[in-house]
């Protein structure tokens, strides 16, 4: 048994499935490139049958991949598996991942009895194996599946040619001792278990995904399925950065290796937070803003004497630059480029030019521009192709409402102006956008965070909107909270409009959730 643990990243499939975390084609391709570069072994790039968009993204990622295996998800149907193969086959190292829900609750959905399901598993894995020599089979909701049936299905999948057997804790139900025991028992009791890799895939409903994944490795699993920032449905999936750093820091008791370059963690974490619109909680392990911050006197004193007093790993190990001096309005383009590079953002000349203009504008308003300010600046995901652009905004607020917003909005290249009132400045601003660009999108989330300390701090605003089941998230930062709110709202609308076009009748099929068990 090898001591190498394969890292299977499913940010672009299970992570992206999280309501609101939808990413654009280009964003998916970019994240896949970052994952490949950081040394992830397998990238689950999407669910090719779910939509034309998913199919195209998986194909493109497969074509561009350098080292990582590229995997696509398919339900237990020949049609799904064929579509998956069409997308992943462009990779030098393709993998088909097929699954079915094996627990009593999941068996009831396609209404299959145990024998019928066993036959379906045999047929699907055989079919996949005829297309590709790298086939992963998953028993969805394995941790709530009767032991005898789980063992039987795993045995069938192996005999039919599966090369990886994934044992998902789909609803985050297991705990570490049970997680280790389940894998250990399968390896001990299933025929030919030593010819395949066992994999663990944990959800975080009870906050134990990382512990359960590591326990599964102790039980014999040699693949961990995870996502950047733990992105995923409900409470999310196992966080890649947590399992990778735990294996690195506690090698003394977990003698396993991964290929991940941990210094790339922070950068990809920030990028995934931006494109998914899911900000990382401040006290999140490894990648949270406070993960390496030492506020209290006792802690600071201890840290100054010896860092190891309160730190089990160095910030540099996860790609966090040591404290550096803030930039100001006299800082030039070269200084900005150097600072961005330290923060993990390598930019072409045009992109840098654009960021430099925004940086100068910010530096005029804010004496010191800190690393977090720059990160917020770079994160603003506007595009030249945006249909809506905020040209001007003046808001009157105060104790005597209603508050009023005067706005100029460019719509498809033409300026339109209006005044609107509302219950507070943000409400007035959003009403102004609505009166200029009528839409039925519903505001699902409006969140404001201060980027740094001080009253001149920038506010980052995240806005999530929903229209006919399509969800889009927008973000923006500004020293003026209302301006940041307007820009984030408009940004979300722009992204929703792109999505609306992509899912026009005849262009895309409706989204398929993976709980659907196939034909
Ligand atoms: O959680 C789960 O069971 C899954 C499967 C599709 C592998 O994501
Ligand atoms: Zn899952």
Automatic annotation (TrEMBL):
It comes from the Bacteria. Belongs to the alpha-IPM synthase/homocitrate synthase family. LeuA type 1 subfamily. This is 2-isopropylmalate synthase. It comes from Octadecabacter arcticus 238. InterPro entries: 2-IPM_HCS-like (IPR050073), 2-isopropylmalate_synth_dimer (IPR013709), AIPM/Hcit_synth_CS (IPR002034), Aldolase_TIM (IPR013785), LeuA/HCS_post-cat (IPR054691), LeuA_allosteric_dom_sf (IPR036230), LeuA_bact_synth (IPR005671), PYR_CT (IPR000891). Residues 5-266 form the Pyruvate carboxyltransferase domain. Its EC number is 2.3.3.13. One of its GO terms (molecular function) is manganese ion binding. Pfam families: HCS_D2, HMGL-like, LeuA_dimer. PANTHER family: 2-ISOPROPYLMALATE SYNTHASE 1, CHLOROPLASTIC-RELATED, HOMOCITRATE SYNTHASE-RELATED. It catalyses: 3-methyl-2-oxobutanoate + acetyl-CoA + H2O = (2S)-2-isopropylmalate + CoA + H(+). Catalyzes the condensation of the acetyl group of acetyl-CoA with 3-methyl-2-oxobutanoate (2-ketoisovalerate) to form 3-carboxy-3-hydroxy-4-methylpentanoate (2-isopropylmalate). GO terms for cellular component: cytosol. Gene3D superfamilies: 1.10.238.260, 3.30.160.270, Aldolase class I. Homodimer. Keywords: Acyltransferase, Amino-acid biosynthesis, Branched-chain amino acid biosynthesis, Cytoplasm, Leucine biosynthesis, Manganese, Metal-binding, Transferase. Its cofactor is Mn(2+). Pathway: Amino-acid biosynthesis; L-leucine biosynthesis; L-leucine from 3-methyl-2-oxobutanoate: step 1/4. Mn(2+) binds at residues 14, 201, 203, 237. One of its GO terms (biological process) is L-leucine biosynthetic process. Residues 389-519 are annotated as: Regulatory domain.
